[in-house]
Amino acid sequence: MNKSKRPGNNEVYIPAEETVCNFMYLSEIVNDKTHLIIRIMDAFLRQVPGELRLLNEALKLPDYPAIRRNAHTMMSSVSIMGITSLNNVLKEIEKLAKSETEIEKIKMQAKTLDIICKQAIKEIEKEKINYMSM
Amino acid sequence: MEDNNVYAHVMKADIETAFKNIPVKIFIYETGEKCMDNLAMQKPQIVILDYHLDNRTPDAANGIKVLDWIKRVRHETNVIMMSHEDNIETALKAFNHGASDNIVKTETQFRKIIYTIFNIIRVMEAKKIALRYKTIAVSSILFIALLIGSVVTMIIYNPSFFQK
Q1: Which of A93, B28, B42, B157 has the fewest C-beta atoms lying within 10 Å of its C-beta?
Q2: Hey, is the C-beta of A36 within 8 angstroms of any chain B C-beta?
Q3: With contact defined as beta carbons under 8 Å apart, do A12 and A113 qualify?
Q4: pLDDT digits over B57-100, tens only?
Q5: Positive or negative, the Cα torsion across A72, A90, A99, B86?
């Protein structure tokens, strides 16, 4: 049973049993080369927690330009890991931060982002182990 | 030059895979400042430059500023500008500052990069061949001029040489 709830305006998206990553794009780009996939996954696992931390710090202030910058940077990383559910979330954060309004809406979206990213990190860690054992 | 490490690694892997038969050396820099420190020494033929290089480090120079630096130091370097923004102003700005191409970051971005690099390499090879032909043509003209000059000199100073 799919327990996940798609985000509405004031809802937080909580993926339950479904996976959020799709590694097809990544493996296609690197021609299924295991060592490259592991290298890129490592870069993601190092980078994204820091990006989330910076975004949350910017939200507390709130520092709108920093929020926009971080959301913008994350777009490339999440698209590579096939986390399509975050495309609109990040676009929305960037748009709201650009207009420098509705911090509560941004926080709501950021919460969704945080939850999905944490799930993605778990999935990538698991996938990385699979690749390493190949 | 890309401040997103994940993206930079994917791009590197993709280029290495696409040009596996050509010896390519790829260097990744997070900021324009770091790249400029090594540009004169590494003499890159192609630079792939992110328009928003100042995203992660707000004090860092943006892509256009770095493009100007590159063109000032090494005009012959081809610069491919990349941006999330799909608007004509961004593209025109990049071209006006000397970029060879402007690529929008979409799903097909990596294919577009490979295609652009391939085209740049073809242009570079064509230029190299043209230069070779130019050298041969100039050398031939000089040789013929020298030959004619020698014959004329002989006719003037030693006309008996041609008379039997």
Answers
A1: B157
A2: yes
A3: no
A4: 667 778 899 999 999 999 999 999 998 878 898 899 999 999 99
A5: positive
Identity at B148, one-letter amino acid code: I
Confidence check on the interface: ipTM exceeds 0.85, yes or no: no
Alpha helices by DSSP H, listed for chain B, are 5-18, 32-42, 63-73, 88-96, 109-157
- Tokens 């996939």 locate to A37
Give A-chain residues touching B7 at CB under 8 angstroms. Answer: 76-77, 80
Q: What is the per-residue DSSP string for B78-117? A: EEEEEES---HHHHHHHHHTT-SEEEE-STTHHHHHHHHH
> Residue B50 belongs to what H/E stretch?
strand B46-50
B5-126: CATH topology = Rossmann fold (3.40.50)
Distance CA B73, CA B61 (A): 16
CB contact under 8 A, A73 and B4: yes
- Rounded to whole angstroms, the Cα distance separating B103 from B108 reads 10
Please state the separation of Cα B61 from the chain's center in Å: 21
Smallest Cβ–Cβ distance between B55 and the set A44, A46, A73 belongs to: A73
B140 touches chain A (CB under 8 A): no
State how far the alpha carbon of A10 is from the alpha carbons of A55, A112, B58, B138, B145, in Å: 19, 10, 31, 74, 84
Query: Cα–Cα distance between B47 and B117 in angstroms, integer?
Result: 10
